[in-house]
Request: fold
Amino acid sequence: MNIPVQIPDGFKQDAKGRLIPESQIKPIDIERSDLVTALIEKAKEQQQQLCDFKALAFGDIAAFVQLSAEQYEVNLGGAKGNLTLFSFDGKYKVVRQCQDSIRFDERLQAAKALIDECIQSWSADSNDNLKALINDAFQVDKEGKISTGRVLGLRRLNIHDEKWQQAMQAISDSIIVTDSKNYVRFYERDENGKYQPISLDFANI
Reply:
């Protein structure tokens, strides 16, 4: 556990932890340090306000969902908790989303083997575009990871082949949810009737 260093009056601590007399520090360096410190303190205040607002938004939405369920016996949002709420005049909408991060276990290799068997058995009858799509789906990126979106996209192909269906089941079985994140987003309808996001991202304001 790091014990905070007591800095005597007339001194400042530098980046290496040394105590430097203020008389030996250039005034511009003191001004720069004071500016950075003041801005960081304000940034932390804004961060805390956003954290408080996020908790408030999720809490209020959850309370409304519970109220609706009690009054009308309707389960809003389904199992994943995704839902969209509109203001009465349709000018505003609030979207709550749950996004899962997934990866595949070793059963994905079994799926790839079954798919390879399908391609071989289809031989000349198989479509070259389909082969390219399948090979592309199992390509790894620079970090050695397989694109989950491309692999899962194979399940949307309308192929009625028993071995192919086994491969799609193997893909489904290989999915592991590693993380779930909840989001709430806010929108306002513009003069053209399109909903524009109300950005809470500092860089986009």
